[in-house]
Amino acid sequence: MTNTTTQTQTATFADAIDDIVEKRIRWEQGTYAAANAELYSILGDCLDLFIALKRRMDVSKEVNALLDLRGITYNTATSLELKLVRLVFASANTASRIENRLFSYARVIRVAADAKQTGATLAQFIAERHGIDEIRRVNKDGVTSADKQKAQVELARTKLLTPSDSELFTNFDLPDPLQPKAGEQFSLALVRKNADGTGSIVFGTDNVAAVTAVLALAGKALQEHAVKTAEAETAKEVAAVKQRNMAELEAVMAETLGAKQPQFVPQLTISAPVAEPELV
């Protein structure tokens, strides 16, 4: 009786979820898709206008005058793309309320312009980058924060699996609280500094989210160390090249000056005495 009731309740719940999912699919393929298409078209027009305005020398005065006329706020640090988006999507009463959305739209325009896109290609550009929110998260390197963190985690997993001289504490028996999850090779330990300067592990966890967060920190540190090492090596190479170039320059100058200025060899000339008439 209980099993039948539970199965009926589960089926009823599943049916309810399926009904909502069906509505969600219709919305995504209908109203939502149409709304996005219209939005991307408007942003495409904004992009084309932004590209055209950037070529003009007097653009700031004209844009600022229209912002002032419509009562939309800005300051000296407000970018051209954000000013343009505010003029198109906001008013004096709504600008502050939808500011986050305006920043997202402005970011899309800036990223698309830097990528040499136009209004005609913007919709495909947004789709290929998984939407406006993902483009908003893209940094100057062209990757999202999530992608950057993922790369840092992968780097840490790769580098930290191999024993190295930089390991802090090695080859100790893992107590149960420090055992990683099945299939994993990392866990976390919370270390307390004791009064005498020694340390004690006071807590351990195999929580995947926590481990991943710390792996990202480790990966970031490894990246920064690699950059510093590469910069130091480059600096050494540059210094060595400069030294070689200077030595070659000095050698060439010495050779050139030596050819143009032959050594001075003093010559001694002795004149014969003038014959004088003999006295008679």
Question: How would you sum up this structure, described in words?
Answer:
The protein is mainly alpha-helical. 61% of the residues lie in helices and 5% in strands. It contains eight helices and two strands. Strands 1-2 form a two-stranded antiparallel ribbon. Strand 1 and strand 2 form a beta hairpin. The longest helix has 53 residues. The protein starts with a helix and ends in a 20-residue tail after the last helix. The relative contact order is 0.05.
Helix content: 55-70%
Q: For the record, give the distance between the C-alpha atoms at the N and C termini, rounded to a whole number.
A: 172 Å
User: Can you count the beta strands?
Assistant: 2
Strand content: under 5%
The poorly predicted ranges are: none
Looking across the biggest beta sheet, what order are the strands in? 1-2
Brief sketch in words of this structure:
The chain is mainly alpha-helical and about 280 residues long. The protein has helices spanning about 1-55, 60-70, 80-90, 100-115, 120-130, 130-135, 145-160, 210-260; strands at about 190-195, 200-205. The chain has 2 domains: about 10-140, no CATH class; about 145-255, no CATH class.
